[in-house]
Q: What sequence folds into this?
């Protein structure tokens, strides 16, 4: 049976979330429905395992990194995700409305998510080793360690403006300047 | 859990007592009709009335929601249920139905002559049924999309990915760029994916007066609605439920007894005919116990003998539903208890395949048993559900190839349930058998459309998996279901690591492909690759910096060459030197 949980979302909560994230009511209700269906145990919050239960995410080479970034961005308690936090993180992926003033803010939020994926130990820098780990997840055993090293080295080098051997968030943003982040990291939410 | 107070209990018992004579009467009539294979067409009218009520309810919902919206200036979200005038009418209608039902109760079967049944019905119900079939097939349960998906992880071996002509920087930043695509795919999957939704009951567009489907809709709106709901509740639990339980028990007893009797006869044509009649009758009684209304289409393709019938699987009732029209041999694991009793009973009257749990692992043994059965022309066609597990009837998942390897004729059957009156989907990890049966028996009705499809055989150049996919496609198309590649077993287990490895491999291929196009760009047409693989990779990496660095994307080749010279201070010393001249001849 579908949403067997009887937790209903109260109007005030919907209003609040709508104000914070710019999703409209419809979208929030549907996201809540999704939240409930991911929360199979009916605990009222999501754990990492709940997200990894989605087969399409589990098959994604970066699946667990994505989940990790999700939880890290959500808040202090990085083991549990309540609905509000869930929507807040998803809000990062809203399309950027170019007419609004805080366009740069949105772009930087999206980049922040990507940065989180790479920065494994969350110290604010991407090191060569961290990059190698990510690259390794994406290609698996299909390239040699040597090639991996080379690619990692080359990458860090190119973006490392201050030559400290690692990439900070600013350097990351600069390197991604030419990439169309707005499009790549926006999801089309239906009304 | 329902724990009735003493007063409520008393009331229910009283109601049941007063209802007993009509219930008993109805039961007798039903059995008579089932045995004779006749019908009175009343169940159809019941269904039609319910449809009318629900649709009217939906209309009311919309108007009331609009009113509410105007009042509170809130945007409309899910349909709110509220209906004032409508309820009184509904209550009247419900009374009428009860009267109808007290006189006689049966389903819409005619005797087994003629291709399409229920020709006797009025034009109204035929046309409404036809339109409801069409709309039924369009409903994939996917009407509640939250996002429009842009990315998709491809599961099978499609290698025709479009190669981007954008200039890649170094391989490294290309990877980061691609990882963003993976991120997007991941987030989209979190919001909405094809699989998770298939293991939940289909979401309804309007409420059908059952609590179990009401969580999507605001619950308490109006006391009048609550009254209506209570009336429906009492009707279902106090009238329908006892009748259905009685019928169910009678049906089971009938099955045991009739198979025992048929089992006396020696194998032969007589036994076969008797078995046929007995099975049909007994399943018809059982199907009335859940008020199953089944519509069969294209009966000329019905499986007659030898061969394997395959169908998509939604609920344990599938076997029963299909057996009301045709007799099949069954295959499955042998159980103990009541189910084991039934299995032994069935085996007395005709041959079925039951295998032990240990044998189930031995695919070859099972396959051999299947082959033996199928090659015997005296035996009945076997009914198999290749998905291996119950899916919620909005999609068809991967078919296991076992039954398609045998080489016999396959008779595909598509089944689509109309879940507005009761959802037959069973998620065994969420509901126990008992709960499920209770739900079935307190639903309004179970409506199913069954399409028989032309028989198919495996082509010579086709392997079992392709054949299975071909059959699956046909079934999905006919039933209006979404055809998915995912394995139904994902309901219970995690994704196996080899699927992840496959994605990695695909990505690595993609990566090497478009970075090697960079190599092509920097290599002159005449130069033969004289270096071995490892060197090529070095070359690749060495070559790609020619257009590396974000700032050099728009720059001219000469600049590229120059910056490359400067740039060429690799952290790892290269053993081969790259001739400068080659770089200068770089592309355009």
A:
């Amino acid at each position: 049976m579908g949403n067997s949980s009887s937790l209903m979302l109260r109007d005030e909560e919907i209003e609040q979330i709508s104000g914070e994230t710019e999703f409209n009511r419809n979208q929030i209700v549907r996201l809540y429905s999704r939240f409930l269906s991911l929360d199979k145990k009916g605990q009222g919050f999501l754990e990492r395992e709940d997200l990894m239960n989605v087969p399409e995410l589990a098959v994604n080479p970066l699946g667990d990194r994505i989940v990790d970034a999700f939880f890290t961005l959500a808040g202090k308690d990085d083991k549990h995700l309540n609905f509000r936090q869930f929507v807040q993180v998803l809000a990062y992926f809203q399309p950027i409305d170019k007419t609004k003033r805080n366009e740069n803010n949105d772009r930087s939020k999206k980049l922040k998510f990507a940065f989180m994926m790479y920065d494994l130990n969350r110290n604010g820098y991407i090191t060569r080793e961290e990059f190698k780990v990510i690259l390794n997840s994406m290609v698996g055993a299909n390239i040699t360690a040597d090639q991996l090293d080379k690619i990692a080295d080359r990458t860090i080098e190119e973006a490392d403006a201050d030559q400290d051997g690692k990439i900070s968030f600013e350097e990351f943003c600069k390197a991604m300047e030419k990439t169309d982040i707005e499009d790549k990291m926006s999801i089309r939410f239906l009304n | 859990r329902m724990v009735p107070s003493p007063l409520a209990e008393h009331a229910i018992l009283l109601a049941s007592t007063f209802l007993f004579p009509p219930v008993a009467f109805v039961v007798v009539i039903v059995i008579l009709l089932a045995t004779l294979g006749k019908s009175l067409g009343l169940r159809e009218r019941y269904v039609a009335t319910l449809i009318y009520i629900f649709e009217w309810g939906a209309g009311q919902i919309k108007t009331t929601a609009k009113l509410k919206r105007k009042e509170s200036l809130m945007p409309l979200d899910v349909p709110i249920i509220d209906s004032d005038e409508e309820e009184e009418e509904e209550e009247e209608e419900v009374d009428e139905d009860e009267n109808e039902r007290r006189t006689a109760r049966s389903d819409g079967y005619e005797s087994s002559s003629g291709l399409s049944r229920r020709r006797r019905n009025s034009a109204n119900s035929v046309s409404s049924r036809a339109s409801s079939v069409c709309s039924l097939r369009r409903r994939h349960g996917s009407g509640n999309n939250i996002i429009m998906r842009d990315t998709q992880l491809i599961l099978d071996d499609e290698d025709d990915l479009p190669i981007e002509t954008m200039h890649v920087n170094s391989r490294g930043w290309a990877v980061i760029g691609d990882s963003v695509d993976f991120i997007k795919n991941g987030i989209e999957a979190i919001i909405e994916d094809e699989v998770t939704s298939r293991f939940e009951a289909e979401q309804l567009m309007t409420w059908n007066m059952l609590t179990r489907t009401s969580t999507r809709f605001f619950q308490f709106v109006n006391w009048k609605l609550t009254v209506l709901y209570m009336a429906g509740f009492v009707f279902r639990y106090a009238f329908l439920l006892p009748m259905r339980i009685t019928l169910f028990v009678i049906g089971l007893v009938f099955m045991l007894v009739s198979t025992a009797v048929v089992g006396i006869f020696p194998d032969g044509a007589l036994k076969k005919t008797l078995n046929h009649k007995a099975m049909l009758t007994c399943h018809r009684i059982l199907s009335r116990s859940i008020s199953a209304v089944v519509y069969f289409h294209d009966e000329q393709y019905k499986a007659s003998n030898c061969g394997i019938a395959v169908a998509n699987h939604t609920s344990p009732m599938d076997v029963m539903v299909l057996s009301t029209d045709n007799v099949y041999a069954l295959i499955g694991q042998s159980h103990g208890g009541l189910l084991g009793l039934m299995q032994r009973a069935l085996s007395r009257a005709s041959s079925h395949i039951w295998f032990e749990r240990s044998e189930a692992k031995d695919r070859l043994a099972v396959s051999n048993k299947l082959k033996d059965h199928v090659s015997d022309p005296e035996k009945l066609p076997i009914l198999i559900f290749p998905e291996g597990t119950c899916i919620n009837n909005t999609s068809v998942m991967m078919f296991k190839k076992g039954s398609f390897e045998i080489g016999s004729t396959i008779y595909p059957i598509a089944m689509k349930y109309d879940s507005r009156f009761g959802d037959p989907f069973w998620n065994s990890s969420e509901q126990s058998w008992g709960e499920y049966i209770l739900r079935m028996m307190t639903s309004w009705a179970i409506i199913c459309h069954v399409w028989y499809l032309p028989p198919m055989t495996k082509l010579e150049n086709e392997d079992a998996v392709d054949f299975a996919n071909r059959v699956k496609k046909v079934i999905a198309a006919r039933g209006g279901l979404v055809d998915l590649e995912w394995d139904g077993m994902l309901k219970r287990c995690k994704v196996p690591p080899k699927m992840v490895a496959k994605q990695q491999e695909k990505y690595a291929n993609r990566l090497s492909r478009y970075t090697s196009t960079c190599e092509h760009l920097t290599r002159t047409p005449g130069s033969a690759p004289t270096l071995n693989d490892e060197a090529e990779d070095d070359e690749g990496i060495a070559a790609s910096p020619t257009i590396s660095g974000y700032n050099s994307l728009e720059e001219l080749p000469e600049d590229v060459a120059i910056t490359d010279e400067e740039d060429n201070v690799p952290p790892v010393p290269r053993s081969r030197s790259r001739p400068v001249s080659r770089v200068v001849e770089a592309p355009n």
Q: What stands out?
A: Chain B has a mean pLDDT of 67. Residues 274 and 284 of chain B are 15 Å apart (CA to CA). Chain B touches chain A through 81 residues (CB under 8 Å). The beta strands of chain B are 147-148, 292-297, 308-311, 329-333, 353-355, 382-384, 395-396, 410-418, 446-452, 482-483.
